[in-house]
Amino acid sequence: MSEQTDRKFKQVGTRPIRPDGVDKVTGRARYGADASLPRMLHGAVLRSPYAHARIVSIDTSKASELPGVKAILTADDLPQVETGWVGDIAYGSDLGEMAANIMARRKVLYHGHAVAAVSATSDERAREACEMIEVEYEPLEPVLSIDHALAPDAPILHEHQAPMGDAPLPEGPTNIARHLLDEGGDVARGFAEADVIVEGVFETPMTHQGYIEPHACLADAREDGKVEIWCSTQGPFMVKEYTAAVLQYDPNDIKVVPSEIGGGFGGKTTIYLEPIAVALSRKTGRPVKMVMTREEVFRATGPASGTKIGMKLGARSDGTLIAGEARFDFEAGAYRGSAVTAAVMTAFSAYRLPNFRIEGFDIVVNKPKVAPYRAPGAPNAAFAAESLIDDLARTLGRDPIELRLQNASREGDRTTYGPVFGRIGFSETLETARAHPHWKAPLGKHQGRGIASGWWFNAGMQSSATVSVDEDGSAVVRTGNPDIGGSRASMALMTAEELAIPVERVRPVVGDTDSVGYCDTTGGSRTTYATGLAVIEATRQVVADLRARAATIWDVELDAVAWREGAAVLLNGRSDDSDKTPLPLEELTRQMRLTGGPIIASASVNPPAAAPAFGIHICDVEVDPETGVTRVVRYTVIQDAGKAIHPTYVEGQFQGGAAQGIGWALNEEYLFDEQGRLENAGFLDYRMPVASDLPMIDTVIVEVPNPLHPYGVRGVGETSIVPPLAAVANAVRDATGFRFHRLPLTPPRVLEGIEQVRR
Amino acid sequence: MSEQTDRKFKQVGTRPIRPDGVDKVTGRARYGADASLPRMLHGAVLRSPYAHARIVSIDTSKASELPGVKAILTADDLPQVETGWVGDIAYGSDLGEMAANIMARRKVLYHGHAVAAVSATSDERAREACEMIEVEYEPLEPVLSIDHALAPDAPILHEHQAPMGDAPLPEGPTNIARHLLDEGGDVARGFAEADVIVEGVFETPMTHQGYIEPHACLADAREDGKVEIWCSTQGPFMVKEYTAAVLQYDPNDIKVVPSEIGGGFGGKTTIYLEPIAVALSRKTGRPVKMVMTREEVFRATGPASGTKIGMKLGARSDGTLIAGEARFDFEAGAYRGSAVTAAVMTAFSAYRLPNFRIEGFDIVVNKPKVAPYRAPGAPNAAFAAESLIDDLARTLGRDPIELRLQNASREGDRTTYGPVFGRIGFSETLETARAHPHWKAPLGKHQGRGIASGWWFNAGMQSSATVSVDEDGSAVVRTGNPDIGGSRASMALMTAEELAIPVERVRPVVGDTDSVGYCDTTGGSRTTYATGLAVIEATRQVVADLRARAATIWDVELDAVAWREGAAVLLNGRSDDSDKTPLPLEELTRQMRLTGGPIIASASVNPPAAAPAFGIHICDVEVDPETGVTRVVRYTVIQDAGKAIHPTYVEGQFQGGAAQGIGWALNEEYLFDEQGRLENAGFLDYRMPVASDLPMIDTVIVEVPNPLHPYGVRGVGETSIVPPLAAVANAVRDATGFRFHRLPLTPPRVLEGIEQVRR
Questions:
Q1: Percentage with pLDDT > 90 across chain A
Q2: Which pTM was predicted?
Q3: Does residue B575 sit in the same domain as residue B653?
Q4: I need a surface site. Which of A194, B233, B470, B565 has the fewest CB within 10 A?
């Protein structure tokens, strides 16, 4: 791609101040809970105290008599939604199950499951009324682990659920919602030919994305059937489609306005409150605002799956991998749809592996229905695979980077799930790690070093963009992707690059579902890549129009005009063309009204998901042998960004992913009691890392251009959470001599490992 | 234009419920004063008690000590703006004068002229603080009439103002800001050859547009230099450009969000409060809301010019017009820029007139600076010209319709201002009037009938539109024109027509200056014509894309696919094409993501202003001979719409224009005392017609297609206010036998005329 390698970028790759920065710092930015309307009511949700129970009856009479209560809603007030499939980013969103998750019908399936909702004149009054709703339950035995779910005598969550999948399943109803199988080569012969085999059963608990901003929305259902929803979401078009589907409204009647978003990480790619707020608004004829408490966010939104992964790798004595086998059991929570699919796809594809067998099971349990969490499924898969690669290197006495380089997938290698990799940067990333000072730095006492790799596909999907230039020569770029990780800055930079003007002259706009063209949800690390493609295409149309205006002014053919350094220039001018000096953008825009009117262009794309990005993390830990307390003391993220549009944001994504992964490795887990009640539904008890817990995380941006993007952009948001679980575990293995198969590495657990080594 | 005449419209020409109707009826629609922000302050303006004075000093110290006062602003806090020209719809917006009108510097030029502004914690507190500002004035003699302004010893408002114009002017400073002259043929010989000459001096007072919603805005100037303005305006892009120019800000930093608008009629095509609110917000670091009182609207916004028109027409005895002469003196108010230009252009162009001389003077007086008011200048010109045509018909004993038909301009006739008319519908409109039952209906006692014609150019100018289709087959059309007269409905209808889907499936969006492509101000009756062109073009691009998707699905050439009745159809299908049944829009959109992604298109236009529309009004009045009270008892508007997109709105425009014109004819006028203080600055004393004052106004839509628009659309909003002044005056002439040359026709004035006839 000559454009990628020869191009001298002027704007892309710089680090301007973020366009949304000042508003966020000064508190002006408006988040999900920051909208209000005249006559607004407040809504609250009554949630199940049982993890598994049948609903016998709901009596709302007392609650409805409370002054200030305007409407009460149960599942009976909502349409009975048939099963069906909508959208495509939220893994396996079955429509009927989405509706049942939003408001329980007949059965509650987790502690915190919505049972009824109230709208009242204040939030407090609405919550008070919830407490006065009398629900009679018939408690059922809860299913709280994968092993229990798969046991022959396990209670069945969904009696009538037909499992899906590629492989045969047992007769009759089970808690298995989906069964996946990918096979290649001859795995038995592979292992038979292996000189070394490493294996283990790895377990990770449910964890939450921990976004700072709770779910919040404001719905306004009007007399003419039109509905407007203001909410914090990664996907306004998704909210529109899903809400319409759940309420059986015409999508044409629904407009969704995305607020600023205080974190999502995949957790805001589905809906919880929106249909309830709309239904309450319709019932009362007044706008209804709903805001979750932190406890509700933990109990009733979608965490990442708890997982159990059995994995085995076989290699020749020279280190060549020849066989791999894995079984992934992923908790789906109450309804089908875990990220086991991506775990199956990513687990072995980073390496050349001729013989493999990978099974995946999506298993329902009486816990909240999971939602995507940054590179969903891949961190768990990498925890297992990269721990085993580490074991293999130790067994063979090989440098873990060299061993990975020896087996690393390259352009042209086939993935375990079928497609062949295009140009990828795994080897370059590994080579960068090998050369990094961190890798050779000495370690202190009780310290250990781990390394791990990880990767993510980076989605393509649908995006639109509209670009225009104003009379003053400034430009506007409009897309429909909420800015969760710097997309305003990256869209502005790409627009500025194509127009060859300073980025400060470009205003990036995130529009509502009526204002802008369709964009799939911000997620899958797709936005800068896919929406960026639409932006570049629309801007190039604008540049073509600008050239045409110059050609008109100069009375020459369009082909005689080029666009250079923010100006139209005449190619191959003759000696009598001295009046045809370069026409800068602002000169052309000032004359727009005389040369045909405003300049505006729209473009849309649906590019393939074929921009995989690889990362490698180096982690140093210090483990206190007396207490088992583990501290990360040095951490380096090396990742292929393809092309870093705004390097500071890219580094921030690297650091954020590493921080979340370290939390997952060391501290975070959903703790349920034996009745399935979440015991740590708050940030005091669910311990995420804070700044004082972590060292400054170093970053190195590798740039191996993605051939599908004119600048080479891949995605950067997700890969960075894939390696940390294994990188930390490998470092703790290095420090303690003990291989941990279960996360998080809490002090008692680490101490127990240290004890075992000492014995 | 075969497209215009052969086309069978399915959506265009129907009367769907207006998309904005329910929100407006239920009070949900948000107007200029309906926005609020956290920490918001309120701003108020101190206004001059003198019509003409020098400002000696301003002492703000006492006011600034009032608790709750956060900032005080005078002209010294604003940049000294040099003269210059911005934009183009507000007639003669000189930048320096616009700034001086917004906040007086050194001199006040009318009673109500802004002198200082305060922001405080409440509107009441801000107004209280204004009263505490001590201003020392040196009063000057006010200039309150055209005659006084032109007198040799008149005080001069602007000592250093250089007059503009086409014709020589006296040496030294005068109150004449502009002098226009259009001549054709040999006017002296024309009159010499005339068999009949009619003439008169006609006078009309200042009148106000009387929009229900006062000017209001909310400005938020942020720490990073960005400014957001919410306001009621006809032109958000105009507000952005003008505010940036007056404050010398970078337009790139300003975003303007148009609220719903409660009437404008041309009065909201300029700015008054916005720069003050922005400057106060910048000074305080807090959002500032400013809302005018009704009194402020009357005193300090832009009414229509008071005018004095001397006019003479000469005709042969067979009725053929052969000479015309006119002098238009228009009050500009305090600063240059009246609509005398349009008066000069429209006065005689409706008729074939071989010899003419038309002079126009733009004259400054100590009254508020005028602003456009619906067909600015044309009603005054038509009042004179159509009164004289009526006199001519009476003198010659001719039917007034026949006389007009005999002289009516037709396609190919040259206007007095230069261009040649294209296809116009004046004759058709006259013929429709001749055939209308009203024209032949008997009159009662004390009743009289008048008829008058009028016309308006209908502007072109710049517009953009972006159209997309959603997965559910619905569509969105986005423009930047505030909906002052039904443009949401007309844009949706044109989009629906091109897509061949029900209009209910189209959502029209009016965006802010960042959300949508550039659109010139809603005004000049340009929106449905010019913005409609952009909408049709963008929708046609969408249809082309839909056809391409169908071609992809069917694996045929694009040319083999047509778009019919909301579906792609295969042309000249072969017998084995039976699977290629019509693909309806919603089938194609459901497959969009598989055929290339979202479908969106943008288009922009800058068409010529060449869609003139003619109207003829028939008015019956009943005059009480004892009191002089005149009532309109029957009224019919016949007007060429070119093509009525939404006939109900077209009829509404016809009726609204007629009602305003009747008010102008019978009741409305600015009444100043001898010091230049407006004495009737409120709706109790400034008497606009209300529903009970008027009969139901009948309407007839004539459709002579405009060749420049694919459906034939002209504009409809302005022509309808042009004939009423003369129609009413001619009817009163018919009832009383007296020719009135001065408006309004108040009972004392009418009584005086009746007395004169009796004498």
A1: 91
A2: 0.94
A3: no
A4: B565
Question: Same domain, yes or no, for A390 and A523?
Answer: no
- Identify the residue among A237, A515, A541 best suited for mutation to test binding to B, counting B beta carbons within 10 A and taking the highest: A515
Q: Give B469's strand partners.
A: B475, B599
Token digits of residue B434: 């001749």
Alpha-carbon span B353 to B414, nearest angstrom:
9
Q: Report CB contact under 8 Å: B464, A26.
A: no
Mutate to test the interface with A, among B509, B518, B537, B590 (most CBs of A within 10 A): B518
Query: Does A601 lie in the same domain as A493?
Result: yes
Going from the C-alpha of A630 to that of each of A398, A438, A660, B304, the distances in angstroms are: 26, 19, 16, 79
Task: Count other C-beta atoms under 10 Å from residue A15's C-beta.
Answer: 14
- Please check whether residue A135 lies inside any domain of the structure: no
pLDDT tens digits, residue range A683-738?
999 999 999 999 999 999 999 999 999 999 999 999 999 999 999 999 999 999 99
Number of Cβ within 10 Å of residue A755's Cβ equals: 11
- Both A470 and A594 in one domain: the answer is yes
Shortest CA distance to B311 belongs to which of B418, B403, B383?
A: B383
Domain coverage including residue B684: 377-458+611-758
* B399, B759 contact by CB (below 8 A): no
Residue tagged 């050779």 (tokens): A440
User: Which CATH number does the domain housing residue B677 bear?
Assistant: 3.30.365.10
Write the Ramachandran bin of B381: left for phi over 0, alpha for psi from -120 to 50, otherwise beta: alpha
Q: Which residues of B touch A529 (CB under 8 A)?
A: none
- Interval A200-225: pLDDT, tens: 999 999 999 999 999 999 999 999 99
Q: Is the same domain home to A617 and A587?
A: no
Identify whether the C-beta of residue A420 lies closer than 8 Å to the C-beta of residue A414: yes
B652 inside domain: yes
Q: Is residue A164 part of a domain?
A: no
Residues A419 and A546 placed together within one structural domain of the fold: no
Residue that is last in its domain, among A605, A622, A643: A605
CA dist A350 and A723 (Å) reads 12
Task: State yes or no: cis peptide before A376, omega within 30 of 0.
Answer: no
Put simply, the answer to whether A604 touches B596 (Cβ < 8 Å) is yes
> Which candidate from B21, B222, B601 shows the least CB-CB separation from A602?
B601
Q: Is residue A593 part of a domain?
A: yes
Sign of the alpha-carbon torsion through B709, B713, B718, B722 = positive
Instruction: Mark whether A587 and A566 lie in a shared domain.
Output: yes
Cα–Cα distance for residue pair B372/B367, rounded to 1 Å: 15
Let me know how long chain A is.
Answer: 759
Angle at B596 between CA B593 and CA B602, to 5 degrees: 105
Q: Which two tokens stand for residue B297?
A: 């609207």
Q: Within this chain, do residues A467 and A454 fall inside the same structural domain, yes or no?
A: no
Looking at the structure of chain A, the number of domains it has is 2
Average the pLDDT over B252-258 and give the result.
97
